[in-house]
C-alpha cells in the first residue's frame, strides 16, 4: 500500500509532457504573475541537461543565445507555473549532458538535426483515409 507522501507526489505529476531529451530545441510556456495580472511568457532554447529522473523534482536546463550572450534557465517540468512544453526540433546528441556547448563556437556549437518520426497512429489513419 502506497504511503500518503507517495500518493500526494503522484497526484502532482503532469501526464501530458513530451519525451524531452538533451539536444532538443524546446519552447517552454511559463505563467508570469505581475501584480494582479497573469500572462504567459515563452522561452525557446536548447536542452542541455535533464536531471532528477521522472519524479516531481525533475528539471531541464535550457540555453539560448541572444545577441551573443548565452542565457540558461532551469525549469522544474512538473511545476504548476509551466503551462506547456513544445519540442520544435530534435538534435542528435551522443551524451547526456551537453555542457560543452557553453564554450563551443561556430560549427562545433551546433548539433545535427534528427528528423521527427511520425507516430504510427497518424500514418495508419492517413492510409485508411486514402482508400
Question: Briefly, what is this?
Answer:
The model has no long low-confidence stretch (mean pLDDT 88). Helix content is 15%, strand content 40%. The chain is α+β, with helices and mostly antiparallel strands and 131 residues long.
Task: Describe the protein's architecture and organization.
The protein is of the alpha+beta class and 131 residues long. It is 15% helix and 40% strand. It has a six-stranded antiparallel beta sheet, with no helix packed on it. A hairpin with a 7-residue loop joins β2 and β3. The N and C termini lie far apart (50 Å).
Question: Notable features of this structure?
Answer:
131 residues; single chain; SH3 type barrels; six-stranded antiparallel sheet; 40% strand; alpha+beta; 15% helix
Amino acid at each position: 500500500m502506497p504511503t500518503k507522501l507517495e500518493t500526494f507526489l503522484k497526484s502532482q505529476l503532469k501526464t501530458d509532457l513530451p519525451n524531452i531529451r538533451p539536444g532538443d530545441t524546446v519552447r517552454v510556456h511559463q505563467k508570469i504573475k505581475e501584480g494582479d495580472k497573469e500572462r504567459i511568457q515563452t522561452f525557446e532554447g536548447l536542452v542541455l541537461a535533464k536531471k532528477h529522473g521522472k519524479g516531481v523534482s525533475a528539471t531541464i536546463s535550457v540555453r539560448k543565445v541572444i545577441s551573443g550572450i548565452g542565457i540558461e534557465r532551469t525549469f522544474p517540468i512538473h511545476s504548476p507555473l509551466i503551462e506547456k512544453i513544445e519540442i520544435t526540433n530534435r538534435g542528435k546528441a551522443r551524451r547526456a549532458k551537453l555542457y560543452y556547448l557553453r564554450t563551443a563556437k561556430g560549427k562545433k556549437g551546433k548539433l545535427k538535426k534528427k528528423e521527427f518520426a511520425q507516430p504510427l497512429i497518424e500514418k495508419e489513419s492517413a492510409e485508411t483515409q486514402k482508400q
